[in-house]
UniProtKB/TrEMBL annotation:
It comes from the Eukaryota. Residues 490-508 have a biased composition (Acidic residues). Belongs to the class-I pyridine nucleotide-disulfide oxidoreductase family. Keywords: FAD, Flavoprotein, Membrane, NAD, Transmembrane, Transmembrane helix. This is Glutathione-disulfide reductase. InterPro entries: Class-I_Pyr_Nuc-Dis_Oxidored, FAD/NAD-bd_sf, FAD/NAD-binding_dom, FAD/NAD-linked_Rdtase_dimer_sf, Pyr_nucl-diS_OxRdtase_dimer. The chain crosses the membrane at residues 42-61. One of its GO terms (molecular function) is flavin adenine dinucleotide binding. Residues 534-635 form the Pyridine nucleotide-disulphide oxidoreductase dimerisation domain. GO terms for biological process: 2-oxoglutarate metabolic process. The lineage of its organism: Eukaryota, Sar, Stramenopiles, Ochrophyta, Bacillariophyta. Residues 484-519 are annotated as: Disordered.
């Protein structure tokens, strides 16, 4: 509720955001900066902010708090403190209330030290510090090593976020902001970019503050610095170089989790400068909106950034080594039709694709003005065939050609910890590092592929279970969880004289743990298991898949076939966006659903229903008799099942639907 009083406008703006960042909302709503803001206008602004965040409204209403307790007992003020402990408690969600603060720890000894404060490290720290474990946990990270996504005060805005936090925020902003409109209103280029980046910072800041609040509530201690193992082979202690003072501190930990993530691979010969020539992380520091950009890469990150900058009005060129961009996308797991749909959308958007090429020499102007000239060679080097472009020019360049695990500078060799040929931490099925000592574990990108935040979070959970034993989900009822929420006592207590859970050191069993999807979480097991996790591509349109492709199902011995529903075949698709498709892979004799592949609006949300269909061994018949809410994309599942049962009729319906889409696009182009 917004009180109808005479408070200033800035009193109603979240105090962690500058009033400048609200300029874009004023432009979008057509409100002049000097005109008084009515309650209705403020309400619309609140809707705009809350609709793009995954946080409760209170995250925007008050400046949230976090003070991190240093090892020596000093406090680093992250944000303004909450008015009272009671106010803080009101801001904690139901599930956060399961956690209880750990006791003060001034002797530098911990049950768990987590290196890296991305989504994986934060999830592991919160889980270990909360019920039923209640472990003393320290989280060690450096803001300067986490993608350079910081605010003006040097605050780490990427804490607890995935590697692609900046691109996700930029993608959201690019969908809401029409750059051509802002330019048409006479805004300078730097003003346009400032509006865009301030909106990204707003989203990232909200996420960071919520993470800080959760860590504070769980009692996780935070150390800003760089951690490494000491010389001599010990793995129960770490040397931490403080980020600001560079002073060295030694901490002891019974268990260590390495969750340092990954960094972009930088091909030799490219003069990265962080100003005009970027990798997929340093692009976070882009200080202007380029009118033209060249991207090398054919994977998920390259496609995401290509659509983002195209939506922001830039001329975009993608350079790929393959002759077929569709086949390049298939190599990373996309279904053939999903890949074709994505490529068609790239071309339709006006994105140029240079095939069978690689970059050669760069000619970068000495000043910020002027375009970069990039030589194009044939795949493998040498001149390109006659008639093909031998040079491209742009204002910015991004190399998005893969990632590598961050295991440098940890002194792993001294600790006897092994890495693979790509630098990935080698682990067993418990995610325990391959080493003489048995107290070091790893999770997330530091292990290597698939480089997905969702998989990393699941690995964090597996690692904590391997260290300290099964958690709430395996031994308790919801009533017991509620009891822990209320009184903070450990789960598993009984009326007999046995010791309460957690009083003894947990010993990792020989049997391998399984995740909720029924597979092991070590990289080797994940690489051969299409049922282990869903995949989402945050391009525009989105793409997502889970389970088998038709070829994979046939290799497993199924008599596999597939059926497709076009977005235009459902009412919501016809009204909002007809460009998209949903495919079901199924077993012909039984109708068993084996895989789901989607490209279109909300694909990354729709895939989870498809995952449950596969995991639940549902059939086409189940979909045909299911009732779905009207005007939703979920109707596509029923339509696809119907098309599986009537392949001839499906072909005719798709042909007719295709004509409808083509006519709609023709009319749109004419206008």
């Amino acid at each position: 509720r917004i009180k109808d009083d005479k408070k200033s406008k800035t009193d109603l703006i979240p105090s962690h955001a500058s009033t400048k960042s609200f300029g874009i909302e004023r432009l979008l709503f057509g409100v002049r900066k000097k005109s008084p803001m009515t309650n209705a206008t403020l309400f619309l602004k609140a809707i705009l902010l809350t609709s793009v965040a995954t946080l409760p409204i209170h995250a925007f209403v008050s400046r949230t708090t976090f003070a991190v307790k240093k090892q020596q007992g000093a406090w680093i003020d992250r944000k303004d403190s909450l008015d009272s402990a009671q106010q803080q408690q009101q801001h904690v969600s139901t599930f956060l209330s399961m956690s209880t603060n750990n006791d003060n720890n001034d002797n530098g000894e911990y049950d768990l030290a987590v290196i890296g404060a991305g989504v994986v490290g934060v999830q592991a720290a919160l889980l270990a510090a909360s019920a039923p474990y209640h472990k003393k946990v320290v989280l060690i990270d450096s803001a300067s090593a986490s993608g350079a996504l910081m605010d003006a005060d040097g605050e780490d805005l990427s804490i607890g976020g995935p590697t692609g936090l900046f691109s996700k925020a930029l993608r959201d902003v690019s969908k809401r902001i029409k750059v051509s409109t802002l330019r048409g209103m006479g805004l300078r280029e730097d003003s346009v970019w400032n509006e865009i980046t301030s909106s990204c910072v707003e989203l990232a800041s909200s996420n960071a503050q919520d993470v800080y609040r959760q860590l504070d509530y769980a009692g996780v201690e935070y150390m800003a610095g760089f951690a490494s193992f000491p010389d001599g082979g010990a793995t129960n202690s770490l040397i931490v170089k403080r980020e600001n003072t560079m002073a060295l501190a030694t901490i002891k930990a019974k268990k260590v989790l390495i969750a340092t993530g990954s960094s972009p691979f930088r091909p030799a010969g490219i003069p990265f400068d962080g100003s005009r020539i970027f990798d997929s992380d340093s692009i976070n520091t882009l200080s202007y909106l380029p009118k033209s950009i060249v991207i090398t890469g054919s994977g998920i990150i390259a496609v995401e950034f290509a659509k983002i900058f195209r939506n922001l009005g830039a001329e975009v060129t993608i350079i790929i080594r393959d002759m077929s961009p569709r086949k390049a996308l298939q190599k990373i797991g996309l279904d053939i039709d999903v890949a074709a749909t994505l490529v068609s959308d790239l071309i339709r958007s006006g994105i140029k694709i240079e095939r069978g090429a690689q970059v050669g020499e760069f000619n970068v102007p000495q000043t910020d003005k002027g375009q970069i000239s990039i030589e194009l060679n044939a795949k493998g080097g040498g001149p390109r065939a006659p008639g093909l472009a031998t040079e491209v020019k742009c204002e910015a360049y991004v190399a998005a050609v893969g990632r590598k695990p961050n295991t440098d500078n940890l002194n792993l060799r001294s600790a006897g910890i092994e890495v693979d040929e790509y630098g990935g931490l080698m682990v067993d099925c418990h995610l325990r590092a391959t080493a003489k000592a048995k107290n070091v574990f790893g999770a997330g990108d530091v292990l290597g592929r698939p480089f997905l935040a969702s998989v990393g979070a699941a690995q964090a959970k597996t690692a904590v279970i391997s260290m300290f034993g099964p958690g709430l989900e395996s031994k308790t009822t919801f009533k017991q969880i509620q009891a822990v929420s209320k009184d903070g006592e450990a789960v598993g207590e009984s009326d007999d004289d046995s010791e309460s859970e957690g009083s003894e050191e947990y010993e990792t069993p020989d049997a391998c743990p399984t995740n909720d999807l029924g597979g092991f979480m070590d990289p080797k097991s994940l690489a051969n298991n299409p049922l282990a996790f869903p995949v989402g591509v945050w391009s525009s349109p989105e793409a997502a898949w889970y389970g088998y492709s038709k070829q994979q199902a046939q290799e497993q011995g199924y008599e596999a076939s597939e059926g497709t529903a076009l977005y235009v075949e459902c009412l919501r698709g016809r009204v909002f966006n007809p460009n998209g498709m949903l495919k079901l892979v199924y077993d012909k004799p039984t109708g068993l659903i084996l895989g789901v592949h989607i490209c279109g609006d909300d694909a990354c949300e729709l895939i989870h229903y498809g995952m449950e269909l596969v995991k639940g061994q549902r059939t086409l018949q189940d979909l045909l008799i299911s009732l779905y809410s009207a005007v939703t994309f979920h109707e596509l599942y029923r339509i696809a099942a119907q098309n599986c049962m009537d392949e001839e009729g499906a072909r005719k319906r798709r042909a007719l639907a295709g004509k409808v889409v083509a006519e709609r696009l023709r009319k749109r182009g004419a206008n």
